[in-house]
Specification:
By secondary structure, the chain is mostly helical. It has 2 domains: 156 residues, UbiA prenyltransferase (Tetracycline Repressor, domain 2, Orthogonal Bundle); 133 residues.
């Protein structure tokens, strides 16, 4: 199935350009970046803080647009993505490319001039990593695409921190690691119940390449690493009991759901309820963990 760009029935409107930015993904990016900014020591003018978050959101939108430009034909083969503007024929690929490049240049340039060049440099690298390293290289070539590519989504809290402090210390590195190790169980849970979709697109996700049992084992193993990383800020005295208690509860729940995935059936006829529960909870997990950390740090300040 090819992209229907040769039969454009309607001109693209603002909703199609908005869809290119992957707004649901952007909301998580913006939230973790805001929490990184609020957790950072020191003061930042509200206008500068707003500008930093706007630039991070715009950079995330650029990454999404460039990803959809490059993967237009792959998206057309998957039920989950076939309705996007490019595979559905509502937009020319060149428009998506120009939109993505424009957003990237705007976000990095404004961040550098209005905030600081460290945060701008990290933002530029995160866009490059997602659009080039992950989308063009890792995703189509290795079942470890999510593991290495998880770095792309782990940069926002580091950027938010750097926007305030102009440097990087251990806590933002731990926040990076939290998202990095959260990503494999989160996306592999999705990949288990979207196995046929990824297979139709020819994407070598772990369930398609190594099988469901290996994937379930990997999800359970990474969940333990995630728990250790999530508790590290509290164990090292960087946060108080609010975050510590929240992290303990969240990770016990996460491990319980990961265990349910590990012990569930591996047949194609399985209902995949355990995988869907873990995937849904993993999103809530990240929001609550980062909110608790930001609030804890603000109370300790």
């Amino acid at each position: 199935m090819s992209v229907a760009t040769n039969n454009i029935s309607l001109p693209a409107d603002w909703r199609d350009f908005w869809a290119l930015t992957k707004p649901r993904v952007m909301s998580l990016v913006v939230f973790t970046a805001l929490c990184g900014l609020l957790a950072a020591p020191g003061d930042i003018h509200p206008v500068i803080a707003f500008t930093a978050i706007l630039c991070i959101a715009t950079g995330a939108g650029a990454s999404g647009a460039l990803n959809q430009w490059y993967e237009a034909e792959l998206d057309a083969r998957m039920k989950r993505t076939a309705g996007r503007p490019l595979p559905d024929g509502r937009m020319e690929r060149e428009s998506a490319l120009q939109f993505g490049i424009g957003l990237a240049a705007f976000s990095v340039g404004v961040m550098g001039v209005a905030v600081n060049w460290l945060s701008a440099g990290i933002l530029a690298f995160s866009i490059f990593f997602y659009a080039v390293v992950y989308t063009m290289w890792l995703k189509p070539n290795t079942p470890q695409n999510i593991v290495i590519g998880g770095a792309a989504g782990a940069f926002p809290p580091v950027i938010g921190w750097a926007a305030v402090t102009g440097d990087i210390t251990l806590l933002p590195v731990l926040l990076f690691a939290l998202i990095f190790f959260w990503t494999p169980p989160h996306f592999w849970a999705l990949a288990l119940f979207m196995k046929s979709d990824y297979g139709a697109a020819g994407i070598p996700m772990l369930p398609n390449v190594a099988g469901q049992r290996v994937t379930r084992n990997q999800i359970f193993g990474y969940s333990f690493v995630l728990a250790i990383v999530a508790l590290a800020p509290w164990a090292l005295g960087m946060t108080g009991i609010l975050y510590g208690a929240t992290a303990i509860v969240l990770n016990l729940l996460f491990l319980g759901l990961a265990f349910a995935v590990w012990r569930s059936e591996t047949t194609e006829a399985a209902t995949m309820k355990a995988e869907k529960r873990l995937f849904a909870f993993s999103i809530l997990y990240l929001f609550i963990a980062f909110a608790a950390l930001a609030l804890d740090r603000m109370l300790l300040a």
